[in-house]
Specification:
Length: about 130
Amino acid sequence: MVNRTRRQVVASAGALSVVALAGCSDDDDNEVVDFTGEDRVDVVVGAGPNGLEFDPEDIRIDAGTLVHWEWTGEGGQHNVVDIDGAFESELTAEAGHTFEHTFEDAGTYEYVCTPHQTQGMRGTVDVVE
């Protein structure tokens, strides 16, 4: 058995706490990128270090704005699917593939990549009048 001083035990516990919390984040804390005043907004599909992200994930736009998604070819096959059925792209891994949707009605639209939604590949479009 190793005898440790109180200071060593407290230091070890603190280090373990830091390690336990490393990598933990709240995905709901993503910053909403404000694109109000723009006619068109571009979103990358297959972004991030593993190709399993939309970039930007959460956007704010005016009603009547066109959102243009473009695939990087990274992370496998992706699609863009509104969880309430307002829009849906095809499933593809082709770099340069695009999908567009014009948002006419105010509201918040949550969308996912269906094959990767459990890995957190999701985004939102907040449409304002």
